[in-house]
Amino acid sequence: MSKSRREIPVPLQPIIETHFHLDMLKAATREEIVSKTELHNIEKMITISTNPHNLDEVIAISETFKQIYCTQGLHPHEGKEWNDEVKAHVIRNLKDPKNKKIVAVGEIGLDFYYSKSPRDEQIKAFEDQLQIACDFDLPVVIHSRDADEDTIAVLKNFSSTLKRKGVIHSFTSGLGLAQFSLDEGFYLGFNGIITFKNAENVRDALRITPMNRVLLETDSPFLTPDPYRGMENAPYYLPFIAEKIAEVKNVTLEEVLASAYKNSFDLFRF
Question: What's the pLDDT at 5?
Answer without folding.
Answer: 82
